[in-house]
Amino acid sequence: MRRLMLAAAMLGTVSAAHAADMPDLPVLRGGFTDGLSKTTRNWDGFYAGGSFGYSSASTDFSQSVVGLTNFIFRDSVLQGPTSSWSLLNKTTTQGANFGGFVGRNWQWYDAVLGLEGTYTYFNKIASQSSGSNSLDIVNPPGDVQPVGVTNHYLTTLTGTAAATVKDMVTLRGRVGWDGGDFMPYAFAGAAVGRMDVSRTVTSDVQLRQDATVQDPFGNVITIIGTPQPVPAQSQTQTQHRTNNFVVGWVAGLGLEYCLWEGLFARVEYEYVKFSPVMNTSVTLNNARVGLGYKF
Fold this sequence. Notes:
Elements: H1 2-21, E1 45-60, H2 66-72, H3 79-82, E2 90-108, E3 111-138, E4 149-177, E5 182-214, E6 220-223, E7 228-229, E8 236-260, E9 263-274, E10 281-294
């Protein structure tokens, strides 16, 4: 028994001495949480840079001249039938874009939140559409005809519309993930664009009155009348706005790569939807590459 106790005491002394020589492991100091983040880059701080790319503008002119036709046919029986005419078409235009950006990142572990302002100049993003439509409007609602008479309003509309997107500014919130040298991110925010928008419509209306009569033999015949001009509804209306500011919203995805210290490159896709101007709606799809520096 005495030998057993002596052996146990000697073993405890050796173990204590060995433990004293071991390094101070982080797990013993509560440092295990230090390994939760694998961050190798610091994306936190202010940054600025420039970019260039390619833009595709989709412009919807289908309702562009409706406001003008409603004015021409106001307080007449033709306003209702012509208000739904889709006289013009949708168009797509491509061109280059150039701009700059400035922003601020805040980083918590691998999450990066940011606020960024951008300016983009568009080169030759101009769209245009023209069209013509003719319709025989017979006894429209509200029209009064003599007994046996059918009114035919022979209506022709010819119109053109154009839109040019000059530039825009955006304010975007960003959410990114620190992947070391890479940082993918998503963004959304508000946009304000500057555009030139114009539209013109010409109406030509003639009234033909056909009479239905009965001849002496009891046969019903229709006498085709001669078209007569209707000056009040035959006119041209034009509207033009230069440097018109229009609001919209923006969203997209991007990726940044750290080249050297604070120098980084980026590539991104951006979708922009503007509110209609004179019934003309414009959406943009922008692809960009850029170079920036984080201070």
